[in-house]
Amino acid sequence: MKLKVLVMVVLLLGFGLVAEELVVPEVVVTVATPAAEESAVLKNVSEPVGETAAPAVKDGYALLNSLLTLFENLPVAKKGTEGENKQMNPGILEVDNRLSQLSKDAKNALETGLIDKIFYNRYRRMLMIFKMVITPVIKNELMENPFMEAFTEFVWNVTYEHWNWDDKDSIAKMAAAMEEEFVQMQFYMDTRQAREEFKKKIGKRILPPPPPPASAKKKPEVK
Fold it and tell me: What are 22-62's pLDDT values in tens digits?
């Protein structure tokens, strides 16, 4: 089945990067709570027993790096009974759990202002594509059309290539689109400051002029 092969392609390619060599330095930010700030000021006061640290929130770079290791260190399926063999592969289950956690991490990053809505929604779309890729779908099944429509739309929106299940290069096109989207999101993070400065530079000159006020319009002559 092509989708199973696609999983292997993404796993083997790994976006062309070695897992130990992350593209960007991963940054983890700790959300400061009022209690945490108070304890920082009172350095000589010992922490109460049982008090836990504030949860770490991943920024955009850390979220992207997590995609590079999505298929790493997965548990291997063990041989079992016929009933056990029908269950989902433990490696796929682990990837599914990681995707769910990354979805929560992205939401936390958005809420704390570490990423904007544009990055957040593009990242969630990537997670959705990964989720669909690891979900077994057989041709002519009930869920085939929604999956194929999502894949077709994703590839077209990213690389402007027409994607079709039966194409010989469908796997290559999907892998290329996923890689391109990753690169675009990486540079989106890298150019945040430059983009904001450029927006201020051009101002509103790119927008069409506003319509004249109602009072400036010529009134019809009364005959």
Answer: 444 444 444 444 444 444 433 443 444 555 556 689 999 99
Question: What pTM does this model have?
Answer: 0.70
With residue 28 as reference, give the H or E element that holds it. strand 28-30
- Residue 54 CA to residue 39 CA, distance in Å, equals 12
Token digits of residue 200: 């201020």
Using the structure block, give the residue that is written with the tokens 């983009």: 195
Domain annotation covers residue 213: no
Asked if residue 215 belongs to a domain, the reply is: no
Taking residue 98's Cβ as centre, other Cβ atoms within 10 Å add up to: 19
Q: Is residue 196 part of a domain?
A: no
Quote the number of domains for the chain.
Answer: 1
Q: Per this entry, what is the length of the chain?
A: 223
Q: How big is the chain by its Cα radius of gyration, in Å?
A: 24
